Amino acid sequence: MQYSEITTQPGKPYPLGATPLPGRVHFGLVSRHATRVWLQLYSDPQARFPEREFELLPELHRTGDVWHIEVQGIGPGALYLFRVDGPFAPEEGLRFNSCRPLLDPYAKALTGNFVWNLREALAYDPDSPQKDLNFRTTGDAGAFPKCIVVDDFFDWQGDRPLNYPLQDCIIYESHLRGLSCHPSAEVPHPGTYRGVIEMIPYLKELGITSLELLPVHEFDENEFERYNPGTGERLINYWGYNTVAFFAPKGAYAADGALGEQVAEFKEMVRELHKAGIEVILDVVFNHSGEGNELGPTFSFRGIDNPTYYMLEDNRRYYRNFSGTGNTMNCNNPVMRTLIMECLHYWVVDMHVDGFRFDLGSILGRDERGNLLENAPILDRIANDPILRDTKIIAEAWDAGGAYQVGAFRGRWAEWNDRFRDDLRRFWRGDRNTVAALATRFAGSADLYHAGGRKPFHSINFITSHDGFTLRDLVSYNRKHNEENGEENRDGHNGNFSYNYGHEGDTENPEIWSLRLRQMKNLMGSLLLSLGTPMILSGDEFGRSQGGNNNAYCQNNPISWNDYRLGVDYGDLFRFTRMLIALRKKHPVFTRPEFYTGLDNSRSTRNDIDWFDSGGGRMDWAKSASCLAIYIDGTEIERHANREDDDFYIMFNASREEENFTVPDPPEGLRWVRVIDTSRSAPEDFFEPGLEEEMPPELEISLEGRSLVMLRTAPDIDEE
User: Fold this and answer.
1) pLDDT tens digits, residue range 586-597?
2) If you average pLDDT over residues 572-595, what whole number do you get?
3) How many CB atoms lie within 10 A of CB 385?
4) Is pLDDT at 468 greater than 70 in this prediction?
């Protein structure tokens, strides 16, 4: 691109970023401590030096802390960077280096598909004994991405965010690349935005409502200098939790290139998912950036205004590290708050996404010194923002600095409920004294959410997520096996509440294989029948394994990809999961928006939920037990769903031994039919609707060890 006939005007302090206008582009950048700013225009993504450069003069191009300029004669597709000058005083938290090119924090796309040279992105001389205290005087941008001016026009064909009520959602957490990258996916564009589109028939068959994607914002995949000790393969940042440009979809996920095509392809993906009735939720990482600690590269924020964007230690050379990655964004600074809100607005208004999951969300509640705030401005702003009113907001309610706030977020915030994960895992593993915890989690975790005025659906229930064992590995390994990550198995969680049932890893022993399959069904059944919003990890529906790796953040290979060939051996599990999802969507008792109330005084003797022991008596929570039965009254749901539902009787046996359960009589005019029995093989593990197994009137059911059985009421045959 040539920049020969162009002129400039001072512009205005808004909007920030690069905004194309007729015949011109407006640029805006915030920096309080800068003394000089330059806008650079590049002719080629690999260009080492700019073709044109314009200095922004404080007397013309600065309003308050905003530097601005309008360039006439350029438009969408123009490539640009900034240079920023000011004090280089690391001990004061100021790290300006006018030699270094810098990314626009508001850039909507970056040139990509090349290996960033991290050594060249350092603003100090790495060979100097003083390291980050030494000012570097070179500024080669050849191996540095360029910002792209993006035209926001797109033919949405009438699309808008779907914004389903949260209680009606089944969330499917997936890595964008991993969903379609394996050859078994058999798609023309594997590992791309278009690959997701090509997987839509599969997602519709499974029945999920909402696709939650691991970070798709621009990051440097090649930041690690580690290798797989077994294969010698270089390890990459596969998950993407190291954002460098919050507005920019990752170029490497585009099928047709990374010169702006990624924006259109992302929009195309969202539009087609919406046509199929599937929402898009993005995992966003505002808690830190990819610039690392004081020895990390200078991509953007560090060189634009370090103390504004980051939390600094009292010794301001160093960064507070509540993220575990070397730095922490100063999320409650007004400048960073503005960036976060405008970023969320952009992804909702211009990119049509339906919601966000906030990685290490507790960091958004910290002040600049790291103290947890009672009423954090950014958390309240997100929850009450008028543009985001219907947008899902989900917090990972903890951080790496010790904050643990599950149940403590306010208002309409939903949360990843790791208490659900751990309590369900421990119950089905057979741990003692876990029945009461199972009941609490099954009923929507009122202990966490009811007192705060929130609802059951604010609990995002999950058994597994990207971070930890897959469902199959949870029942196949007693310990993590992360050797291939190149960290000598020191990384990843040690408290997994897993069990291998007699053999570590894969086995051909049919008894162990069958028991593991049953336990996967028990866990999946418990998840999808519980009150709250369920989240399924991609691939769990057909037994995906990571070979015991519970921290596959660096594995861009079959360890992390969905191998759909597993559907041959685990087809029963896929069928079971698909039918569970269909049952949940059909029966409003499983998606009720309110907590159970216990005794319903309007009907004198009937409870909306009752708890029984295996003998049919009221559950005595003080007794140690491994069995539980739950009666759910479907007539009560009429107040919430405008129609009655069936009654359900769900029995859990986590012991190794067979247990007889006495079943109460169904209401007059009704009979019990068996819907689910995880001890059986398909199709009798889950009967097709209308073909359920008839149960005798006076009923005692024998549950095999480690199994789940669910009955449903149906009209008496004489009544039909």
Assistant:
1) 999 999 999 998
2) 97
3) 15
4) yes
Backbone angles phi, psi at 651, to 5 degrees: -115, 130
Question: What domains can you pick out in the chain, each with its CATH number?
Answer: 7-148 (2.60.40.10), 169-287+331-588 (3.20.20.80), 600-715 (2.60.40.1180)
Q: Residue 259: what residue type?
A: L
472, 545 in Cβ contact below 8 A? yes
Residues 164-178, mean pLDDT to the nearest whole number: 98
Give the amino acid at 28.
G
Residues annotated as part of the active site = 359, 396
**Which residue blocks in 148-295 are alpha helix, DSSP H?**
176-180, 193-198, 200-206, 261-275
pLDDT tens for 469-506 read: 999 999 999 999 999 999 999 999 999 999 999 999 99
Cα 8 to Cα 640: distance, rounded to the nearest angstrom: 60
Backbone angles phi, psi at 474, to 5 degrees: -60, -30
CA 375 to mean position of chain CA atoms: 24
- Round to whole Å and give the CA distance between 299 and 219: 11
In whole angstroms, give the CA distance from residue 116 to residue 571.
42
User: Quick one: tokens of 525?
Assistant: 């059944």
Q: Which of 3, 154, 155 is nearest to 75 (CA)?
A: 3
Q: How far is CA 151 from the centre of its chain?
A: 28
What is the spatial distance between Cα 114 and Cα 251, in angstroms, rounded to a whole number?
Answer: 10
Geometric angle at alpha carbon 458, from 433 and 432, rounded to 5°: 5
pLDDT in tens, 409-418: 999 999 999 9
User: Going by DSSP bridges, is the β-strand pair 627-632/7-9 parallel, antiparallel, or unpaired?
Assistant: unpaired
How confident is the model at residue 601, as a pLDDT?
Answer: 41
pLDDT above 70: residue 108: yes
